[in-house]
Amino acid sequence: MRIWPHEVAAVIIASMVLASMALAIRAQNSKAVDEKWEAPPEAAAKPNPESQNPEASAVGRKRYMRLCVTCHEEDGNGQAKSAADLRCATVQGQSDGALFWKITSGNLTKGMPAFATVAENERWDIVIFLRTLKGAEGDCEKKNGAK
């Protein structure tokens, strides 16, 4: 059986159209999630397994200084890169599970990379450290997108 060049071209074009449609659907779905950027309820409800570890905050600080300080600054204010101010009530009021999910999943639309490759316990330790960040509220609520 002989395959004609126009048949090969038709298969390639059809594959490209299907792939484009799939990407467009995925982009629409992720955009809806990105605008709100809330952890799914089951993720937000997860308890922090490191909450009773007395070394968690120190370990979390080390990881924060290596992974997060470039965008969020040492004190968590995020002003250097227009990142979220981690000291604000909009961040501090989220559950440990929600913060863990955000660190893990990221949100490139908001400029937050995913850190899923960092060891799970270290991501939980970062959450513990984030709880130590305190600062003046000022206009941070507006900066973080709260209404």
Account of the protein in words:
This protein is mainly α. It has two domains: 1-36; 41-143, Orthogonal Bundle (Cytochrome Bc1 Complex, Chain D, domain 2), CATH 1.10.760.10. Helix content is 55%, strand content 0%. The chain has helices spanning 5-36, 41-44, 56-67, 69-72, 89-92, 96-105, 120-130, 140-143. Helix 6 (96-105) crosses helix 7. The longest helix is centred in the first third of the chain and has 32 residues, at 5-36.
Blueprint of the fold:
Elements lengths: L4 H32 L4 H4 L11 H12 L1 H4 L16 H4 L3 H10 L14 H11 L9 H4 L4
Helix pairs in contact: 3-7, 6-7
Q: Assign a percent range to the helix content.
A: 55-70%
CATH architecture of the largest domain: Orthogonal Bundle
DSSP summary, beta strand count = 0
Unreliable spans: 29-34
Summed up, the helix count is: 8
- Main beta-sheet strand count, sense and barrel state: none
The CATH first-level class of the largest domain comes to Mainly Alpha
Averaged pLDDT, please?
83
User: What structural class do you assign from the helix and strand content?
Assistant: mainly alpha
The fraction of residues in strands falls at under 5%
What is the number of domains? 2
Query: Any idea what the radius of gyration is?
Result: 21 Å
CATH superfamily of the largest domain: Cytochrome c-like domain
User: Which shape, going by the Cα principal axes?
Assistant: elongated
Termini separation (Å)?
66 Å
Q: What is the N-to-C succession of helices and strands?
A: HHHHHHHH
